[in-house]
Each structure stands twice: as C-alpha cells, then as structure tokens.
C-alpha cells in the first residue's frame, strides 16, 4: 500500500511516480502537498536529484516529443481489450473493482496509467536511433555512445541507436564513412549495414563506402567479416590492407591490396597514385553534388598522381584541368569536361 505523505525513507524514481501525493505536488495540483515534499527534498542531497528526475518524467506526460507508431498503438489496444475480456470472465473481481473505483480513485489511477505510459515511452525513446547527415562538401566527425569514432564523408547519412553499450552495436550507412571501433567485451558485436552488405567488426579501423550500387570496404587494422546480401556471394574475412569492392548491378566482387592513403580523405586530402580521372569525377559527383558530362570517354582514362587538398573545390578543378590538359566549362547545373582546343 502506497503512503500518502513523505517520510525519511529513500524513495526511488519509480516509487515517486507511483505515489499519488508526489504526483499531485509535481503537477501542482495540490498546494497542501508542497510543504511535505519540500521538507523531504531538503532532508538529503540525493532526494533532490531523485525528485527532479521523477518530476521531469511526469511533465513529459504533457509535452510528448514523439507520437507512437501505428504498430505501437495497435499493440496497446490489443493489451487493453485483452484486459477487459479477462475482467468480464471474472465477475467477482469486476464487482470489487467497481466498488473501489470511486471518482476520486479513478482520477488517480488514470494519472498513474499515464505515468506508466510515460515511463515506458521514456525507455523506448532511449532505444530509438540517432541520425547524422552531411551536406555536399562537408565532412563531419561523430563520436558514438560507446566512444567509437566515425568520420562521415560528404553527402552521407549515418543512423545508430541512442544507446550502444551492453548490446549489439548496429549502424546503418548511406554514403561513405571511416570507422575507428572501440572494443567492448560486454557488447555482442559491432555491425554496419549498407544497401548491399553488412560489415561485422570487433575492434578495428576501416573505410566503408556504398554509393550507386557499388560497395567498397578497406580494412586499415583489425579484422572484419563482410556478408553480402546477394545469397550467391559467400562471406569474406578481411585482413589489414585488403580492399574488397562489390558491384551490385553486375554482381561482381573484386579484391586488391592498398594502404592507408585510401582513407586520406579523413585528413582533408586525396593521395593519388596513378589514379584515373574517372575516380575524381566520382568524388566530385558523390561528395560535391556535381553533374558532370565528359565529351570523350577516353578523357576518363587519363591518370594523375600526387596530393590534392579537398578544402576548395575550385582548387581541385584547377589542378585536374592543368595537369590533365582538359577544358572545364559550366552551363546551368552541369559541368562539361572536354579536350582543349
């Protein structure tokens, strides 16, 4: 049986949410309860923190940030109808319930049901996903709840659970990102989902890109397993330096070796070794939102080597125009690459 006035006991947040006197005081519905709870709060430093947390939860009953989904509402309705059916099958209990529920008690129980719903909603919200996106030309650093580090490249989106500790750490990527995963022996694992493959790691650094039905995974350190969504493709275990690329349209997998220069974009630059212009065109389209038309397909095969800094798109265009001897022009929202006249 719940007490209707505070005493010297240590109340938990849950206990306060179930105490009608505290509920009335927190919602400012009964001024007579004020002195009692202010005295209890002043009795110990921990009391103020507990009361503030419980009060915040109660106030969220009025200021809901998210609406429940249709599935949640349907499940709630099924539980409600199930409870009513059980009461109809037990007339003795129903009579006792009717006798107990006076108008005053009905109001209290309605409030407590709302509080219970708020507490459940509060727990559910902690499990919802966070979403981080980057614009064209923007690179963003994201620190995950488990202290893992993600460098999110331009025109990319990363989603992850608000809380990752102590459970399977799952993320969803569209675009490209570099990961430095913090090992967590208590967690069930670390998985990054893309449109065409899932990458499972335990403690490592790797680069993952998924754009235009092409997926590329470069492992810098540690160990990862790649599971393709295509049932005809077997899983692959990658070792440091491995680069695996998957073309979903042609259902082809290729593997090669490279070094950390593959992820030099995380340092604001491109380290190019005998790279074709087609690779740079992909970067301009995927990361800067450019639409590029090339007058001669052979132009895409021209090679460039060296370092290009990514701070200024105009500098990138100036370098490739002069080094590769091509003419770059723009009409409306389209950029045209052609041979110099």
Automatic annotation (TrEMBL):
Domain Protein FecR C-terminal positions: 269-336
Membrane-crossing segments per the record: 97-124
Oxidoreductase is among the record's keywords: no
Keyword Membrane recorded: yes
The organism's place on the tree of life at top rank: Bacteria
InterPro entries, per database record: FecR, FecR_C, Ferrdict_sens_TM
Domain FecR protein: 131-225
Keywords: Membrane, Transmembrane, Transmembrane helix
Cited PANTHER family: PERIPLASMIC SIGNAL SENSOR AND SIGMA FACTOR ACTIVATOR FECR-RELATED, PROTEIN FECR
Name of the protein this chain belongs to: FecR domain-containing protein
Organism of provenance: Chitinophaga oryzae
